[in-house]
Design brief:
By secondary structure, the chain is an alpha+beta fold. It is about 30% helix and about 25% strand. It has five helices and 13 strands. It has helices at about 1-35, 60, 155-160, 200-210, 210-229, and strands spanning about 45, 55, 65-70, 80-85, 95, 110, 115, 145, 150-155, 170-175, 180, 190, 195-200. Helix 4 crosses helix 5. The relative contact order is 0.11.
Length: about 230
């Protein structure tokens, strides 16, 4: 009887340890994986050409997947957008900012063949992507599609600046004295004709603000001379 009782106690103790292990593993899984929001896929950096346009090959984005891109403005503000082919049987592209009016810039992910808002978990009706309203991603206006490319103008990308908050550290140049600066480490900046300029100190900012053309012409001449060399 004592031996049987000992075996029963051992079995109960073993089951108890197993239950504790399962509980711990479940809690760990929830904290480390399940409770975390979906991770955004890497965004491909894009740059503007001499016409202030971004060109993306259609061949790169026609497969029905979410293709995320990143454009960095003059002041370091990062603007994400994505392109997706909305229909499985024909080409129907949509170009949209990776943000929505309701949930902000948390972005969207692809789960299976559906696009999901990270902020609220709403699953998008894929053919409706590119249309305004609800939790749909904010459309990019006036983008163009040629036979081979998607073309987006700088002006239309700039319309997305207010939807994003991330600032990327970039190197900038004080147009007054030519000194190299870091955009996130100087408080002196000034917007002129849609472009942000950074300055070493308040004196340089005021000099530029009073006569920006003088310094911009000097910068253009220096750039031309450098290219000729």
């Amino acid at each position: 009887q004592k031996l049987a009782a000992l075996r029963t106690s051992s079995h109960l103790l073993g089951w108890g340890y197993l239950a504790l292990a399962i509980t711990f593993a479940t809690q760990l899984y929830w904290e480390q994986i399940a409770s975390r929001p979906p991770q955004l896929s890497e965004a491909i950096p894009v740059t503007l050409d001499e016409k202030q346009q971004v060109h993306i090959p259609i061949e790169q984005v026609k497969d029905g997947k979410l293709h995320r891109f990143l454009w960095v403005a003059d002041d370091g503000k990062a603007v994400r957008f994505f392109i997706i082919n909305r229909l499985p049987d024909k080409l129907s592209l949509a170009a949209v900012f990776d943000a929505c009016i309701l949930c902000g810039d948390q972005g969207y992910v692809m789960e299976g063949n559906q696009v999901v808002c990270v902020g609220c978990g709403v699953r998008m009706f894929t053919p409706s992507i590119g249309k305004p309203g609800g939790c749909n991603p904010v459309p990019i206006d006036n983008w163009k599609q040629t036979e081979t490319e998607v073309v987006i103008n700088k002006k239309n990308l700039e319309e997305g600046l207010n939807y994003f908050s991330t600032i990327i550290e970039i190197e900038v140049v004080d147009p007054v004295n030519g000194k190299k600066l870091t955009n996130t480490k100087t408080e002196y900046k000034y917007n002129h004709e849609g472009k942000t300029y950074f300055f070493t100190d308040e004196k340089n900012l005021e000099l530029f603000r009073d006569n920006p053309e003088a310094y911009l012409n000097k910068t253009d001449e220096a750039s031309t001379a450098k290219e000729e060399k």
